[in-house]
UniProtKB/TrEMBL annotation:
Residues 33-451 form the Major facilitator superfamily (MFS) profile domain. One of its GO terms (cellular component) is plasma membrane. One of its GO terms (molecular function) is transmembrane transporter activity. Its main location: membrane. The chain crosses the membrane at residues 35-56, 68-90, 97-116, 122-145, 157-179, 185-205, 266-287, 307-328, 335-356, 362-383, 395-419, 425-448. The lineage of its organism: Bacteria, Bacillati, Actinomycetota, Actinomycetes, Mycobacteriales. This is MFS transporter. The keyword Cell wall biogenesis/degradation does not apply. It comes from the Bacteria. InterPro entries: MFS_dom, MFS_sugar_transport-like, MFS_trans_sf, Sugar_transporter_CS. Keywords: Membrane, Transmembrane, Transmembrane helix, Transport.
Amino acid sequence: MLMTTVSPAMAATAEMISARLERLPMSRWHIKARVIVGAVTFFDGFDQLMIAYSLPVLTPKWNLTPSSIAWVIAIGGIGMLVGALAGGWFADRVGRLNVIIASLALYAVMSLGMAFTDSLMLFLVFRFVQGIGLGAEVPVAASYIGEITKAHKRGRFVLLYEVIFPVGLVMSAVVSAWVVPNFGYKILFALGALPILLLPLLWKLPESPRWLASRGRFEDANKAMTQIEREITDRYGKTLPTPQPLPAVAVDVRRGRFIEAFQGVYLRRTLMLAAIWGCAYFVNYGIASWLPSLYHSAFDVSVDTALHYSIVTSVAGLLGCVLVAFLIDNLGRRICITASMVLCSSLLFLLAATGADTATKVLFWSAGSALFVFAVNMALYVYTAELYPTRMRAIGCAIGGASGRLGIIVGPLVVGAILGGGGSLTMVFGMFAAVALIGALVVGFFAVETREKTLEEISQ
């Protein structure tokens, strides 16, 4: 790949920004930034299952068929796909926080639109546009968190931030199980406007110093870095060590381009990530979005009970995310992701082989598979952000996120096609098991390990 020649002073400045970030001790400032930006991810988790838990009510309201249910689910994923690609492109040009703030506002406004319409067509339009906001903000948020974090124990730090996502899933299950039967689905969607409250907190955060330096804005990068250092030292009483020079790296201040993700060393990384993102989200969302409706329609379980069953699956997924956060820096990214996908596939094969003929059997085995596939979804956020240089990190995360959104679109549609064509639940879960196994093989053979390396080292 061609590199832009820059002066030694610029290179030294870029290296110094990274060195200053790497020498920062983990502090309450990091936790504050992680929680504020992580709240964005919370609402991603909250939103992804709100539609699933509303479907038992929306289906009779609009006389939805299995095929139309699949499209109600998938339309949000299509918006997320568009948003992920557009958000990554804009974030590498106008900044991480600018895209996060704009996307969050768009998501909140569209949630209100979904809450106050009785038209199926308008509901779908609002859900599509809401998906654009949601798809843009989540991968960019992952880029920001990865860029303010040092190499040592980066996996644990980033994933503990990402655990807010499955917490959102659990909260969505708990809140939906109470709100939908008692107050209706409209109140549930109105809650999606709450992220507006985060905007003042996001405005106070500094832009990513690594991104500013990658754009050649060294003065702004120094100001952002000084703001972080001052807050850590003054407010939290920390003493900062002297920055240690990092290994020399080539500095390229060109704007990142999508095509570069498919060139040179990044081609293999991008194709591997696209495959595992697609497989993991195909399985995760395909199962999770359909479960409440399946419990209700296939096993004649009440709406109340179906929603409570779904809480179990979400809690299992949360446990998997916590486990991978504490294992990923010790075992490494490749082992954690590969092993989790193999175990997820095994449980789904067992469910298919024993016959998915009772609600409790589906609940038990699907909860087990959720534990592992949720862990993969979380691990991918930290892993994807590590595999690209700062100037094109958001683009790389956007491609991964878009591949995941493609899985979100296709998974529910395939389930709808199988069930609409007279297929059985055994066929559905057997298909999910095969897709999970494909994801495991791709990562096992083609992934590169990144633990305990600085972002600058990995990007070479």
